[in-house]
Design a protein that fits this description.
By secondary structure, the protein is of the alpha/beta class. It contains ten helices and 13 strands.
């Protein structure tokens, strides 16, 4: 007699009526050795440097053709215009410009934004003044206007007045997002940024071509004279630093996308970037070291490039409506881009033209494909990286600027 049998466990060869009444047997448990089907790829599009008067609806048609799950503004969604230079960047002018870009159907962005999730951060022009930082006035009003432009809800944590770390007040546009198994970390490089070693004149409205002169001053002071090699001024501010450290410590994503409106890895002294804040940049890269599937997105410079060494990777996509080679100094722009190339993955990994960027997360192959597209959607730059792999950053390879 089989001791494992009981009257309450009928033989399989002689099923009872009670057993039959239970219906069909449950489906077998999935075999853990067989991988479950992966979710479809996730697409994130991004772009920066958008002048309303130059906007082309065909651009937004090209972005929409990727069917992105998310579009990220990486800075300079608008440029403020005013009859009097002294009025540029005022809260009133920003309100008008942001509203026009969001509501003017002829630009193409309005229809695009209705069909896709939109988020992002700001840079100097949609913050209010060229090269502006922590000294900018009316920051709360500016933040609310930009959040309205993004379509952020009333419960968005960036609208809260009190900070995440009492008793500090909450400022800035930094925030985490999730798309699939990827984490997106939006940084605010404007609200807390302290002055350059040689303060920028780029926002002085009465100086003709102030932005060009500011770039020249950066080159001479940092690139030629080497001033400020140990400049310790802040970019993020301590409250944002604590938040960033907490977010990265969670280590709960296969890929981490860090959005910085200005370039992090660049060795070009003509442009704004973290290189002009060397101690802050070293602190940032050490904090990011070891992050799984890291890619940095940036804008600002009016051309595109892919930078990095080893597993560190930065994709710059700028601008949506204009390029540095179209300006009166355009003949010099390409010379400068080609002169400063040691931070790029390859010296030819750049493109000067109107562009936008994208990242496709392939969850089945655990690859992410970063791309830069021209306004017709054609891919002009690209690279594939593995997700789920810890990023090793060789901090010493970066040329220090200043």
């Amino acid at each position: 007699k089989n001791p494992t049998r009981s009257k309450r466990s009928p033989s399989r060869r002689h099923p009872s009526a009670a057993t039959a009444s239970l219906g069909p047997p449950p489906p077998p448990s999935p075999d853990p050795r067989v991988p479950m089907s992966a979710p479809p790829p996730t697409v994130v599009a991004f772009g920066s440097c958008h002048r309303r008067e130059l906007s082309d609806p065909r651009l937004w048609t090209s972005v929409a053709s990727l069917a992105p799950d998310l579009f990220l503004w990486t800075g300079d969604a608008v440029y403020s215009h005013a009859d009097r230079p002294s009025d540029r960047g005022s809260v009133e002018v920003l309100r008008s410009e942001l509203s026009l870009v969001r509501r003017d159907e002829s630009l193409g962005y309005t229809a695009f934004a209705r069909g896709v999730r939109v988020d992002g951060t700001w840079d100097d022009h949609d913050y209010g003044r060229n090269d502006a930082g922590a000294d900018m006035g009316q920051k709360r009003e500016r933040r609310e206007l930009y959040l309205d432009f993004l379509g952020a809800g009333a419960d968005d944590p960036r609208r809260r007045r009190e900070g995440l770390y009492k008793p500090l007040r909450r400022e800035g546009l930094y925030k985490p997002l999730r798309v699939g198994r990827a984490k997106i970390v939006l940084l605010d490089t404007r609200s807390f940024r302290e002055p350059y070693y040689v303060p920028s004149i780029g926002g002085v409205h009465w100086i003709p071509h102030a932005s060009v002169l500011a770039a020249a001053v950066c080159y001479v002071s940092a690139g030629v004279l080497g001033l400020g090699r140990n400049h310790s001024a802040a970019v993020l501010g301590e409250e944002q630093w604590r938040w960033l450290t907490d977010e990265l410590a969670k280590d709960d994503a296969d890929a981490t996308v860090v959005v910085s409106s200005v370039q992090v890895l660049s060795d070009n002294p003509f442009v704004e970037g973290w290189g002009h804040f060397p101690q802050e940049r070293r602190r940032t890269l050490r904090t990011l070291n070891g992050t799984r599937g890291l890619v940095i997105l940036s804008g600002d410079v009016h051309f595109a490039e892919i930078a990095g060494r080893g597993r560190a990777l930065e994709v710059t996509s700028s601008g949506l409506t204009h390029s540095c080679t179209e300006a009166f100094y355009g003949f010099l722009a390409k010379v400068i881009i080609e002169r400063y190339d040691t931070h790029r993955t390859r010296e030819d990994m750049y493109f000067a033209g109107k562009i936008f960027g994208s990242i496709e997360f392939d969850w089945e192959r655990m690859n992410m494909t970063v791309s830069v597209h021209d306004t017709e959607g054609k891919k002009v730059l690209g690279m594939v990286r593995k997700m789920g792999v810890s990023t090793v950053i060789d901090i010493d390879y970066l040329n220090m600027i200043p």
